[in-house]
Amino acid sequence: MGYFEAIVLGTVQGLTEFLPVSSSAHLILARALFGWDAEQLGMAFDVACHVGTLLAVVAFFRSDLMAMAAAVPGLFRQPWWPADAPGRQLRLIAVGSVPVLIVGLLVAGRIEETLRTPLVAACSLLVVAVLFLVVERVGARSRGEQTVTAGEAVLVGAAQALALVPGVSRSGATITAGMFMGLRRDAAARFSFLLGVPAILAAALHEGWHLLKTGMTAEQAGIFLVGMTVSAVVGYATVKYFLKYLASHTLSVFAWYRIALAAITFVWLAYGRG
Fold first, then answer.
1. SS3 per-residue string spanning the chain
2. Which of 26, 60, 209, 271 is the most buried (most CB within 10 A)?
């Protein structure tokens, strides 16, 4: 893997981490389509790109995150469910992060070994696309993110845990779950992006520990840095404009994109691969 591949994959990650089309599926498919060595840097490079998108979401939501950080000392003096908005939001993110941390610790390695394939990604793209079309046609969506309850945060967190399967999409799963609960699209997206911060950070720390043990060359470090930087810049722009888009548009275009990509992948796997 060279710098050109790092730029391409970093761009793919920055776009697809926040758009509900699955960053992991696109990284897997891009490598398979162009014949790049998926094992050379593998999951560790994916996590480096995820760190870039983590920096993007931290930069975009810096005011919210600083307010939550300032609320931490007060959590020890308040009831379990504080009345102030930053403290309440912080605890919602904390309880919502529990499912993905548990699932990640228990089965993340097995998922990486067995499910990171183009076929699994295509199937997941198709299934979640159907859910997009369904959620756009059922129920009222008028609630803001400030109305989310602890139980609902756990359910959205469970949806986030499903996104460990390639093709599901972290943002797609969590936004869909929030919309099924009656949240507006943009409100569901905001909560989704903030909920993703602990999960992405935990994945980066996990892979970072392995990298510290195995080490890397100066060239690998440069490739990691390029992928991370590109994904951060592209990711910031994607968050900014995607939230504006969701304020007045549906998820249907992403559903049809996922269906088209899944169909193309199925055809490629059946007739064109190799």
1. CCHHHHHHHHHHHHHHCCCCCCHHHHHHHHHHHHCCCHHHHHHHHHHHHHHHHHHHHHHHCHHHHHHHHHHHHHHCCCCCCCCCHHHHHHHHHHHHHHHHHHHHHHHHHHHHHHCCCHHHHHHHHHHHHHHHHHHCCCCCCCECHHHCCHHHHHHHHHHHHHCCCCCCCHHHHHHHHHHHCCECHHHHHHHHHHHHHHHHHHHHHHHHHHHHHHCCCHHHHHHHHHHHHHHHHHHHHHHHHHHHHHCCCCCHHHHHHHHHHHHHHHHHHHHHCC
2. 26
Q: Which of 215, 222, 168 is nearest to 48 (CA)?
A: 222
Q: Look up tokens 């992006």; give the residue.
A: 193
- Which one, of 167, 140, 172, 139, lies nearest residue 156 by Cα? 172
Alpha carbon dihedral 211, 214, 218, 219, in 10-degree steps, equals -80
The one-letter amino acid code at 26 reads H
Cα 199 to Cα 54: distance, rounded to the nearest angstrom? 10
Q: How confident is the model at residue 205 (pLDDT cuts 50, 70, 90)?
A: confident
Each residue of 101-156: pLDDT tens digit? Answer: 888 778 777 776 788 788 998 999 999 999 999 999 986 788 888 889 999 999 99
Q: What is the pTM of this model?
A: 0.86
How many angstroms separate the CA atoms of 20 and 109, rounded?
Answer: 24
Query: Which tokens belong to 226?
Result: 């390029």
Task: Give the span between the Cα atoms of 207 and 150, in whole angstroms.
Answer: 30
Q: How many other CB atoms sit within 10 Å of the CB of residue 212?
A: 9
Backbone φ and ψ of 269, nearest 5°: -65, -35
Domain definitions of the chain by residue range: 3-272
Which of 13, 2, 29 is CA-nearest to residue 228? 13
